[in-house]
Amino acid sequence: MKNLWDIHCHIVPHVDDGSHSLDTSMEMLRTDYKQGISHIIVTPHYRRNMFETKRDVVEHNFKILYDKAKEEMPDLDLYLGCEFHKDKLIAHMLTEDERYRMNGTRYVLVEFSESESERQIRDTCRAVLNAGLYPIIAHAERIDIVRKKKGKLIDELRDDGVYIQVNANSILGYDGTAYKWCTRSLLKNDEVDFLGSDAHNMSDRVSHLKECALFLREKYPREQVIRLLSKNPKRIVRNEKINDI
Q1: Is residue 242 domain-resident?
Q2: What is the separation of C-alpha 121 from the centre of its chain, rounded to a whole number of angstroms?
Q3: Domain CATH code at residue 34
Q4: Cβ–Cβ contacts within 10 Å for residue 229, how many?
Q5: What is the pLDDT of residues 128-177, one digit of tens each?
Q6: What are the backbone angles phi and psi of residue 137, rounded to the nearest 5°?
Q7: Beta partners for 108?
Q8: Separation CA 201–CA 198 (nearest Å)
Q9: Range of the structural domain that residue 103 is part of
Q10: Residue-wise pLDDT tens digits, 37-94
């Protein structure tokens, strides 16, 4: 499969717990490129008291990576996003600085802790929506309450305008049985809007996006797979709202 999109990964060097060198970042990009991934939204963490690298530094390191990647893989398109951990100031920060969003668009990749309560999830997503932005819940399968309530909570959130991202490794079972069955249940009910590799390195958190794409192609309708791996991600960078959820 070719022309795949990855909307969640940690490839920018020296900014979070992802790549710790430019060499590693380039190795990660080469691996993706060989897998047929031609468009990548890199999403460095922002989390108060944990990952607070200044946006100027993130942009600088991204530009170095972007230029080097273009020299070697000119048809590989990179975009800068962010994985923004739930924060009481989330609406203010997102409206004040578009660099916390996905490619400067209205889309926001929002991360929650595994033990997050349903109320905290709803309140955070509502704050983002009220700011005129489009929240995407990062690796939703990792959240305990999502797995407990299965599709009920997801359906209600999506009805409100929230989007759902799951990880390729979870679908394939590399992150454990609980995540696997949660993601496959969501996929079966067509309750997923985006996929991501959530790749961090070349050792224990590598990208298996192509393997996941091949699995999906065998198990799920073609149009659904195209939406997840191409159609919906394109709408992020074009700042176009997804209407078919």
Answers
A1: no
A2: 17
A3: 3.20.20.140
A4: 27
A5: 999 999 999 999 999 999 999 867 899 999 999 999 999 999 999 999 99
A6: -75, 120
A7: 135
A8: 10
A9: 4-237
A10: 999 999 999 999 899 999 999 999 999 999 999 999 999 999 999 999 999 999 999 9
- Structure tokens given for 235: 């709408």
d(Cα 235, Cα 39) in Å, to the nearest integer? 12
- pTM exceeds 0.85 for this model: yes
User: Percentage of the chain surpassing pLDDT 70?
Assistant: 98
Q: Residues 6 or more apart from 208 whose CB is under 8 A from it?
A: 168, 169, 172, 174, 197
How far, in Å, CA of 155 to CA of 203, rounded?
35
Distance of CA 225 to the CA centre of its chain: 16
Domain count, the chain: 1
The answer to the question of residue 245 being in a domain is no
How far is residue 233's CA from residue 245's CA, in Å, rounded to a whole number?
14
- Which value, in Å, is the radius of gyration of the alpha carbons in the chain? 17
Closest by CA position to 39, among listed 4, 1, 11:
4
Q: Tell me how many degrees the CA angle 153-156-160 measures, rounded to the nearest 5.
A: 135
Are 135 and 128 in contact, with CB atoms under 8 Å apart?
A: yes
Does any domain span residue 180?
A: yes
Distance from C-alpha of 81 to C-alpha of 237, rounded to nearest angstrom:
10
- CB–CB of 34/68 below 8 Å? no
Residue 97 lies in a domain: yes
